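Students often ask why inverse folding is considered easier than folding. One informal answer: many sequences map to the same fold, so there is more than one right answer. In these notes we will look at a single instance of the problem. The structure comes first.
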């Protein structure tokens, strides 16, 4: 790479990279950096993060499925054995909320929890929500269609995923704005270079979130309804019911994961389509073309960029030795841009018939909400472009400083 930006240094001889994740040049356009890494150092040690990272499609895809790596490590080793620092007192509520998270646990607990939840998210069940999603999207567009302009995230993208996941779980829709506030504070814990203030805000959000969910659990115990929360409370698996702590963790992760990434993806997708200069009509002319367009936006502008894994045993990947307790990171968004798998990987090409994107992960931790997210995207994107002909970007989009998530702060549109 000839013109290396000042926030990136690549030492190919040591497979070492220095990269400032909070630099606007990076989080504003991470794909350009991923292209440089693919060209020079697809497996690298990120100096600032003190960890090995993988960007190659085959490595990322394999590691997501590799049972020698897992989302947790303390089920097989103690903190003392691994020389891990004790938990922080000021994040104890966040840690408690994460303790039984589907995203953070391994079998057999993961299998039991996922089995109880999975039925609600299978495609045939999610498909029944199509009329509701369409009605909600039409209603929101009705509010701003005559204005000739809107800020899409606040008027549309923020509202649809959180409303649908709240309905599904059984949380009152009017809680939507509060759920968004809790979620935004909660995911601050996943940011690179998070501050103590970020951690305190996440811990407070986790405490308030958990207290609220506990009150809803008490209601559903007394009066079950036809919703996912009632199903989780009253259904047994091999003679066992979920504990309150498991119910709280699962509900929080479903609410967060069920909307945060999809909000980002709606904004990212609209932006990439408009910036491509392509005529939207052929992109959404039928169900098949819509699906291909949606998958290509997921490939080129994924909302979640990194998943981490613990090495559960000593092993070697791509010539790098790992011992039990080492942590590795997989950059899903970079794997989606691997030139070994995708021709002209930085170009938006909905007609692609290449490798499937890895934006929802793979293996036992494949995103349980993928069918719902895909359905929402396949409905709302065509609707937006059909209802608002001449749609265009009105002001330069603002990207959120939330790496390793990738989404917009604002998307001002006009038509």
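Output (designed amino acids):
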């Amino acid at each position: 790479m000839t013109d290396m930006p000042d926030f990136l240094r690549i030492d190919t001889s040591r497979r070492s990279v220095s990269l400032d994740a909070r630099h606007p040049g990076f989080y504003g356009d991470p794909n350009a950096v991923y292209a440089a890494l693919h060209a020079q150092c697809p497996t690298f040690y990120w100096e600032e993060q003190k960890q090995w990272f993988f960007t190659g499609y085959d490595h990322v895809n394999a590691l997501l499925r590799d049972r020698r790596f897992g989302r947790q490590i303390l089920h097989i080793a103690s903190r003392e054995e691994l020389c891990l620092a004790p938990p922080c007192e000021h994040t104890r509520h966040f840690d408690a909320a994460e303790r039984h998270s589907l995203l953070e646990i391994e079998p057999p607990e993961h299998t039991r929890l996922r089995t109880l939840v999975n039925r609600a998210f299978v495609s045939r069940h999610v498909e029944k929500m199509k009329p509701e999603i369409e009605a909600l999207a039409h209603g929101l567009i009705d509010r701003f269609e005559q204005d000739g302009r809107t800020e899409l995230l606040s008027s549309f993208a923020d509202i649809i995923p959180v409303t649908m996941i709240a309905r599904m779980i059984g949380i009152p829709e009017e809680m939507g704005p509060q759920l968004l506030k809790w979620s935004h504070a909660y995911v601050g814990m996943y940011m690179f270079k998070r501050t103590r203030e970020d951690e305190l805000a996440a811990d407070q959000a986790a405490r308030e979130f958990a207290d609220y969910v506990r009150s809803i659990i008490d209601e559903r115990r007394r009066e079950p309804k036809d919703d996912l929360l009632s199903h989780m409370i009253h259904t047994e698996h091999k003679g066992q019911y979920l504990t309150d702590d498991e119910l709280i963790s699962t509900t929080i992760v479903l609410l967060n994961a069920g909307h945060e990434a999809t909000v980002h993806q709606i904004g990212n997708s609209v932006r990439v389509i408009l910036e491509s200069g392509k005529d939207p009509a052929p992109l959404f002319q039928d169900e098949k073309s819509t699906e291909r367009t949606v998958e290509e936006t997921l490939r080129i502008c994924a909302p979640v960029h990194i998943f981490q894994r613990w090495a559960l045993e000593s092993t070697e990947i791509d010539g790098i030795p790992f011992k039990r307790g080492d942590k590795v990171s997989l950059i899903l968004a970079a794997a989606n841009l691997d030139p070994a798998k995708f021709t002209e990987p930085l170009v938006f090409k909905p007609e692609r018939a290449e490798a499937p994107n890895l934006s929802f992960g793979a293996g036992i931790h494949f995103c349980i909400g993928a069918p719902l997210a895909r359905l929402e995207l396949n409905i709302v994107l065509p609707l937006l472009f059909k209802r608002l002909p001449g749609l265009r970007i009105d002001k330069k989009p603002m990207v959120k400083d939330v790496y390793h998530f990738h989404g917009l702060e604002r998307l001002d549109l006009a038509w």
